[in-house]
Task: inverse folding
């Protein structure tokens, strides 16, 4: 069983189901309500465990009841939370999430801006039993430190490059694999939604940084740009999405990143890892909930075999 170390954001989601996403300054009535843990790194860690891997989470939370709730739920899934650091006098991250009848979601997040960002305590986090490191962008200093440590150790160092992506680029340079969301690529490169502009932006980043890059586009599949061959133009490849009926897209990208990092940890080539991750995310969107919707390995492999 391979272990993935996930670094970044853990949050408690308060989820409201509404016929349409709220619009306008008026009262809106929910047709359903639930609470669940969320956050890119935390949800990815759950996805890793559900897919048969082992996951450790490195994240910052406050010293409040929300932190306790987050930890209890993650440990119930089997995530190692020994490096979930509580900071006295600070608030844990919370989100109000609205999910409509089409499965699309609107998220309003609050993260304590005074939560200590110094990553010096990460020296105590060992990589001895880790086969891959995955980080989100919510704690850039911690993410960059752990990505650089993973790269130096010869491990896959995967960056979930979702909004916000720091513009100076050092976080991207620390990773071996950069997996943008479409919003993250637009945020970093200022490209438009046009397919040609997206392709050119991704190609430019892969070439200028000599990195393996991709951009996940939901139902539009995954576009890959492999720029690791010096002196050659990046190799471009498109991996189609699995055709499913979406019920809830909450956490789908996080599940994708967890599944991708685990596949790399298990020695799979990138194209195979992308397809495996896309299958996991496709199953997730057919189910309500973020972490709760992550598939098992049997479910993911069954979809891969049928396709």
Result:
């Amino acid at each position: 069983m391979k272990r993935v170390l996930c670094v970044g954001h853990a949050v408690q989601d308060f989820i409201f189901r509404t016929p349409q996403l709220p619009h306008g300054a008026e009262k809106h009535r929910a047709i359903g309500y639930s609470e669940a843990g969320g956050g890119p790194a935390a949800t990815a860690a759950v996805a890793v465990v559900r897919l048969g891997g082992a996951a450790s989470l490195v994240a910052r939370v406050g010293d409040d009841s929300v932190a306790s709730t987050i930890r209890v739920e993650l440990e119930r899934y089997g995530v190692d939370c020994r490096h979930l650091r509580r900071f006295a006098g600070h608030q844990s991250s919370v989100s109000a999430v609205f999910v409509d009848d089409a499965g699309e979601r609107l998220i309003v997040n609050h993260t304590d801006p005074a939560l200590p960002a110094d990553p010096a305590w990460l020296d105590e986090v060992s990589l001895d039993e880790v086969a891959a490191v995955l980080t989100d962008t919510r704690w850039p200093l911690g993410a960059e430190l752990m990505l650089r440590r993973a790269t130096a150790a010869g491990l896959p160092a995967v960056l979930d490059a979702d909004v916000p992506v720091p513009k100076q680029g050092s976080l991207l340079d620390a990773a071996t694999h950069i997996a943008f969301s479409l919003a993250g690529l637009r945020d970093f490169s200022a490209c438009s939604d046009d397919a040609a502009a997206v392709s050119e932006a991704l190609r430019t980043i892969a070439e200028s940084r000599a990195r393996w890059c991709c951009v996940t586009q939901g139902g539009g599949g995954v576009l890959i740009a492999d720029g690791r061959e010096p002196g050659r133009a990046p190799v471009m490849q498109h991996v189609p999405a699995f055709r499913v009926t979406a019920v809830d897209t909450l956490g789908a990208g996080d599940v994708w990143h967890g599944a991708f990092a685990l596949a790399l940890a298990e020695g799979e080539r990138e194209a195979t890892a992308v397809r495996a991750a896309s299958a996991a995310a496709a199953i997730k969107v057919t189910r309500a909930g973020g972490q709760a919707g992550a598939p098992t390995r049997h479910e993911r492999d069954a979809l891969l075999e049928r396709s």
